[in-house]
């Protein structure tokens, strides 16, 4: 979420984490949703740059990228927990 201020980053992170939580049928706290959304945005942007040599622009595009990244993180978390 490069170029966004801290407040917008936290708000978008919370929204992205909440959407990913609903998509992946999970239950997380608000703080965990914010963390998932922000880290998901980092993962999603890295992945999009790796695959497409670009990333989605604007608030809506970054929200989609963050949701995809957060879903990947939730999936990886479940995968790691199931192995232990």
UniProtKB/TrEMBL annotation:
<dbReference type="InterPro" id="IPR007341">
    <property type="entry name" value="Transgly_assoc"/>
</dbReference>
<keyword id="KW-0472">Membrane</keyword>
<dbReference type="GO" id="GO:0005886">
    <property type="term" value="C:plasma membrane"/>
</dbReference>
<comment type="similarity">
    <text>Belongs to the UPF0410 family.</text>
</comment>
<feature type="transmembrane region" description="Helical">
    <location>
        <begin position="30"/>
        <end position="48"/>
    </location>
</feature>
<dbReference type="Pfam" id="PF04226">
    <property type="entry name" value="Transgly_assoc"/>
</dbReference>
<protein>
    <submittedName>
        <fullName>GlsB/YeaQ/YmgE family stress response membrane protein</fullName>
    </submittedName>
</protein>
<keyword id="KW-1003">Cell membrane</keyword>
<keyword id="KW-0812">Transmembrane</keyword>
<feature type="transmembrane region" description="Helical">
    <location>
        <begin position="60"/>
        <end position="80"/>
    </location>
</feature>
<feature type="transmembrane region" description="Helical">
    <location>
        <begin position="6"/>
        <end position="23"/>
    </location>
</feature>
<keyword id="KW-1133">Transmembrane helix</keyword>
């Amino acid at each position: 979420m490069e170029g966004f201020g801290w407040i917008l980053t936290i708000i978008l992170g919370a929204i992205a984490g909440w959407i990913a939580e609903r998509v992946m049928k999970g239950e997380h706290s608000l703080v965990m949703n914010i963390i998932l959304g922000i880290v998901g945005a980092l993962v999603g942007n890295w992945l999009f740059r790796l695959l497409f040599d670009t990333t989605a622009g604007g608030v809506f595009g970054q929200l989609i990228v963050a949701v995809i990244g957060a879903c990947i993180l939730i999936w990886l978390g479940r995968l790691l927990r199931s192995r232990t």
